[in-house]
Write a structure and sequence with these properties.
- By secondary structure, this protein is of the alpha+beta class.
- A hairpin with a 2-residue loop joins strand 4 and strand 5.
- The radius of gyration is 19 Å and the shape is globular.
Length: about 300
């Protein structure tokens, strides 16, 4: 187990953006994305990190980027630190396994959420309205029900605060019909392909979210892909309709935060060691099952 990396500083390398989990640096004609061990829940970053999380996220994403490259091109230029530009060599140990060099892209400001099962905020919306993002669903569905077919349920991409569910018509208004149709089609196609693969590995991918951007006139997938941070992964052999599911993602952390009565406003509470280690174990198990590899 490596040292927990919460803050990422690369003296002399131009900072571009700091997200909840990733730090992005500007290399001129490309970007360096580094995944920290920070973990967020309910839109707040926890003060406690999860050991190896950044490496696990990066390696899972790389697996899926490669798996889906015939469906949608991605932003990856290089992920081998030994092939990075010489100005990054002093930081080689810090960057290994948890970083990638990616193409600069013009962000499409939509979180492309796809759901195959009824869970989380989608389940809450369904209970209130029978719909998600304006899509009417069959009556009588239960928590964790498999949907008749996967649905595209986009949200806004908020710089701060909570992302908000929007309808497909609102996506069209925001980014145009052609772009909206492309990101919807690619989201559903990539999800379906990955769901079928994960099913053979004993994992149900209940839902996930993708981000896209333009490189020139071409739309590519960027950021991360089908990680435990951006998806709900459920053990297939333990799946039962009508209840929340055990999972390989940060649902365990969310459940703990709910159990202590946190009001979901900053500052977030410090995580006990048991929650840290169980969360790490779940992320690592997802990595192992999906990639077929052992230790990170």
């Amino acid at each position: 187990m490596s040292e927990v990396l919460l803050e990422i500083e690369l003296p002399g390398i131009k900072a571009f953006k700091k997200g909840k989990v990733r730090n992005v640096f500007d290399l001129g004609d490309s970007l360096l994305l580094v995944a920290s061990d920070r973990i967020s829940a309910f839109d707040s970053v926890m003060p406690t990190g999860i050991p190896d999380k950044g490496a696990i996220l990066t390696q899972i994403s790389l697996f899926w980027f490669d798996f889906t490259k015939s469906i949608i091109k991605n932003h990856i230029i290089e992920a081998d630190v030994n092939k990075y530009p010489k100005e990054l060599l002093p930081f080689k140990d810090k960057l290994a396994k948890r970083s990638v060099i990616g193409k600069k892209a013009e962000l499409i400001p939509i979180e492309c959420v796809v759901r195959g099962y009824l869970s989380g905020s989608g389940w809450k919306d369904y209970q209130k309205t029978g719909s998600i993002c304006g899509l009417k669903l069959p009556a009588g569905l239960k928590e964790s029900s498999k949907l008749p077919e996967p649905i595209f349920t986009p949200t806004t991409k908020a710089e701060e605060g909570h992302d908000l569910n929007i309808t497909f018509a609102q996506v069209v208004d925001q980014v145009g019909e052609e772009t909206a149709n492309t990101i919807k089609e690619k989201t559903l196609k990539a999800y379906q392909s990955c769901v079928e693969f994960a099913d053979k590995k004993g994992i149900i991918i209940a839902d996930t979210k993708f981000e896209f951007g333009f490189v020139g006139s071409e739309i590519i997938i960027i950021d991360e892909m089908l990680t435990p941070d951006s998806s709900r992964f459920w053990p297939k052999d333990l799946y039962k309709v009508g209840q929340s599911q055990p999972s390989y993602d940060k649902q365990f952390l969310r459940d703990w935060l709910e159990s202590i009565g946190w009001n979901k406003e900053p500052p977030a509470p410090k995580l006990p060691e048991e929650v840290v280690q169980k969360t790490r174990a779940k992320y690592l198990e997802a990595y192992t099952k999906i990639t077929g590899k052992g230790a990170i």
